[in-house]
Amino acid sequence: MGTLSEDACRARTEPSSAALRRIHIMGAPCSGKTTLARALGARLNIPVYSLDEIMHQNIGEPLKRAVRNLILEEDAFITEGIYVWPEALKRADVVVILDPPAHVRTLRILWHRFLLASGRSVLALMRRLFSTLETSRRYRMTQLDEALMVLGAGDARVVRVESVSAALARLAEATAACGR
Questions:
Q1: At residue 70, does pLDDT exceed 70?
Q2: Domain total of the chain
Q3: Per the domain annotation, does 18 fall within a domain?
Q4: What local confidence, expressed as pLDDT, does residue 151 receive?
């Protein structure tokens, strides 16, 4: 796991395509998923979809399923979020797992909570902060394990990195390798 090789290029459903066109990014809260997705989307001119935004919409499960199916039917997409969509994992050319160290996630969570705290009481802020920290801890134990079970051990499409810059570098290498 973690090496995008020629096997990953062959594993794609469209081997004639020179670039990675279906990318799924996952990780704990504040791991850099949105930052990476936006950077890749702009660089590769691929639409970006936030699974968190879709799943938090009050539109009912049937409509959420319809939106998910529309996204997954596209030839190119970047999906990101803490939610695991087995279909997105299976359809992706590459699955990026952003897994920064705990202290980095904690600092980012603190930063995000204080940025978003305008007009909130300190007690409300602290409740939200501890809730997010607990979600981050639980995420690593459940969703990542679930995703790796869906993909299978040793899937060459999986890249596990600690930072957005490392992910960008690995994906650039993979795109170049698949283009050969």
A1: yes
A2: 1
A3: yes
A4: 72
pLDDT, tens only, 117-134 = 666 666 676 677 777 777
Mean pLDDT of 54-69: 79
Model pLDDT, residue 137: 63
Residue with the bigger pLDDT between 169 and 136: it is: 169
Return the pLDDT at 69.
81
Three-point CA angle 163, 157, 172, nearest 5°: 55
Q: How many CB atoms lie within 10 A of CB 172?
A: 13
CATH number at residue 66: 3.40.50.300
CB 91 within 8 A of CB 71: no
Q: Is residue 10 one of the residues assigned to a domain?
A: yes
**Structural domain contains residue 166:** yes
Q: Is 1 within a domain?
A: no
Q: Which two tokens stand for residue 92?
A: 């992706």
